[in-house]
């Protein structure tokens, strides 16, 4: 008698495909159409290393998948049910889209039998809804389409400029069955390219010649260096040619913080001096977004020589006139130009760099003097300094908020070690409410690392419900620091600077975030004295629970907010 062939359903096929991509977690909330997917995980998926992480809001689940992708440099997976689940995911997916983060979003669609029949959660064109915030969208109606669709999703999410993609799976495909060996599921190397193409030698030589002739060159290290993991090549290259470096928000950590070549992040702090004086700029994977003042005057000059390297040709020359545009992978570019540079004479000293290093040191000493005062309410920059000095050297840092994030960016390299892929901020969309879910996603991705999130009080409340998720997952050494000035600080700064202090809808009531956190099962503590910041942080990290420090700070507008606000950027 012939052996009966084993049948599998669409849920089984989807999980098999995700396991081929070494997916460990799917972040989301269940829905009826996902029953077969969940059952596959329950029956055999967990044994093979894949599981779901239940959130209390789909937007938070998408943010957690985003954080996973930022920290691991592999796609994060989020999901939500058809209709409201899909709409709730949008803000999280949109934040990932704005920062070029590969997030794969999976949503079901109602059974074809009930289309256009006003069934529960039906009649919503989810594909069209996601088109503006995803690079690729695929609707799947049959089980045999699932493997190819998953392959395409990963290929698109990771190919070229990384961005989110959408997979919509009709309930029909989840319910359909097929013989287990009838659907081949390819290994990664069998359906997408891993190696990056080489860049023409003549372009590399041109870029090197321009740099060698420069009197005041700078490197702008952006997200392209982070995503291609080109930080070792960058460090060796700037040392060989004695080149000062500023990073974008997405490029934070791509040069060691102790390096004399590192001057700061974006247009904050030293950027205000370095950028306008530079004669040759090499922009590596940098979009010249608002954090880089759009590449415009008065920070930047059109007369500057700009060498722009980006995997996406649509970015090159988009914000600022270029002298030399190079389409390519940033790590590959750095490998090739470093090889060419080593055939030239090594630059031992550059006066421009030495001057900048001294100026930066002077600025830090001035700030230290100011922050030595024990002012109450606590100065925002004192809070930032003390938290940065308290953190582990390899901690993952999350910034969530307006003015407090700007203050942190101004000091990001002054008191803290920033490793590659360890600084998370939804800068492109300016998304608020990322602290809690980013913390969860980052901690699951790197359970041995300390995770610290600094959030404004307004931002912190947006996804506060998922403190319960952090507690349920028993996450430790995860510390949320709420910079509490009882206001929507950045908007209040705008009304203060440009509207004659006519404040409206910017003042928040007094609220005890520590007590709120305790209600979820977290460790909570209120801090009002600047001398208690560091001891409180120690208690929080050693509490054995997710922890929330409610730190009462003064309302104070950062210098960068003032400057960029006056330019109409904020």
Order of adjacent strands in the largest pleated sheet: 3-2-4-5-7-6
Could you tell me the radius of gyration in angstroms? 25 Å
> What would CATH call the class of the largest domain?
Alpha Beta
The biggest beta sheet is recorded as:
6 strands, parallel
Q: Stretches where pLDDT falls below 50 for ≥5 residues?
A: none
| Number of β-strand runs | 20
Overall geometry comes to globular
Terminal-residue CA separation: 74 Å
User: CATH topology of the largest domain, anyone?
Assistant: Rossmann fold
> What is the mean predicted local confidence, pLDDT?
94
Helix count, DSSP H or I runs of 4 or more residues: 22
| Class derived from helix and strand content | alpha/beta
Number of domains: 3
In terms of DSSP E residues, the strand content is 15-25%
> Going by CATH, what is the homologous superfamily of the largest domain?
Thiamin diphosphate (ThDP)-binding fold, Pyr/PP domains
Question: Multimeric state of these chains?
Answer: single chain
CATH architecture heading of the largest domain: 3-Layer(aba) Sandwich
Q: Roughly what percent helix?
A: 25-40%
Verbal overview:
The structure is a single chain. This protein is of the alpha/beta class and 570 residues long. The protein is 39% helix and 16% strand. The strands form 4 sheets. It has a 6-stranded parallel sheet with strand order 3-2-4-5-7-6, with helices on both faces. The chain has a 6-stranded parallel sheet with strand order 11-10-9-12-13-14, with helices on both faces. Helix 21 (533-541) links the parallel strand 19 (523-527) and strand 20.
